[in-house]
Amino acid sequence: MELRKITTDLIKFRTETGNTKEIEDCFKYVQGLFGDEVVKKVYKKDKLAPVMLLSNVDTLDFDVMVVGHLDVVPAADEMFEPKFDGNILRGRGSLDMKSFAAVGMKSLEYVVKERLPIKFGVLLSSDEEKGSFGLAAFLGEYPELKSKIVLDVDVAGDITKIIAKCKNPVFIKLVAKGKESHGAKPWLGIDANEKLMQVWSNIRKKYTYFSKESPAPCDTWINTVHMANIAGGGAANVVSNYCEATLDFRLTENSSVEELKSFLDSCLINGVEYEIITSSVPVVMDERNPYVLQYKKLAEEKLGQKIEFEYIGGATDSRAFAQKGSIVIMHSGSGDGEHTAGEYVDWSSVEKLLDIQKDFLRLFCNNN
Predict the structure, then answer these.
(1) Distance (Å, rounded) from C-alpha 221 to C-alpha 227?
(2) From CA 339, how far away is CA 128, in angstroms rounded?
């Protein structure tokens, strides 16, 4: 198994979320990389996206587990043709996050080859980009699945940063209902678009609007919201009787979903309601945890420079394990352009991440 080949092979699979055949083919490819010494399980429920668990022992109680995903956001055909430009690997999933999934696979190969006395697994979902509903079903079916330490490699951007905190993403559907009338006689109708915008204005009284055209906050570890989409009305000369919008809230560990609900209730007016589409929990790592500090020290030695802790607004599948009490270490390689046509990964950071994982696994075995 060669890291570069595994990564480029994975990128070639068009595993856009929902592309079941490509995802299943990709899973088969991954399983084919290992022999009988690796336990290979694929979970599939109803029409939900499948989940794959690879491990060196047949258990659901792990010492260390790598968590990630193999689905990607849509892209043009040429982005599924991986290209190296010196030390830069370009392609859909190069950064988010097939190269780091390959790192987990190589770490599993290392554990098996070296016969390390550790219960090690690699858990890969295939609908992370659209809510991880397949993973949620899998965890609901097997609540006993746990790991003392989770290596979360789905936080790409900078190998010199370890993510200490992730916000809680809460998606809200806002719905306004009105009454149709001719546009020339608005007094005979009730404009649903207008109602929704009034509520949105109430929300903005607490949640500041930010953009690249305005100054960023001095402290970005704050609650935020943006309107992801909005739709209402039909013909230009008809007062709209329906309008809906999706709101993307990102909450720090200092706020709760219940507090958000109470606030939204206070923002509503007659004819407007909301529902929570999805919510989770923030992931907060103990920066003083001995395992975290050991990992940080190994990474600094491997990179030859100091590692900093960083806070981000994005979500991650490791939140499910943080709720179970796992020690979550969020760290991956460097690159930029995830979800864009310019996506790339710094290949040297991928190789260094593998070295760091191997050293950490060996140290874990020596200390336990």
Answers:
(1) 19
(2) 13
Please state the separation of Cα 208 from the chain's center in Å: 24
How far is the C-alpha of 331 from the C-alpha of 310, rounded, in Å?
A: 10
- Domains of the chain (ranges plus CATH)? 3-167+282-367 (3.40.630.10), 175-278 (3.30.70.360)
pLDDT in tens, 333-367: 999 999 999 999 999 999 999 999 999 999 999 98
∠142-143-144 over CA atoms, to 5°?
Answer: 90
- Split at pLDDT 50, 70, 90, the class of 279 is confident
> Where on the phi/psi map is residue 304: left (φ > 0), alpha (ψ -120 to 50), or beta?
left
Beta strands in the chain (DSSP E): 39-43, 51-55, 61-69, 83-85, 88-90, 120-125, 146-152, 161-166, 168-177, 224-232, 242-251, 272-278, 283-284, 308-312, 327-330, 335-336, 344-346
Average pLDDT over residues 269-287: 92
Q: Rounded CA gap, 180 and 187, in Å?
A: 10
Question: Is the pLDDT at 142 greater than 80, yes or no?
Answer: yes
Crossing angle of helices 347-367 and 3-12, in 10° steps, is: 120
- pLDDT for the residue numbered 1: 83
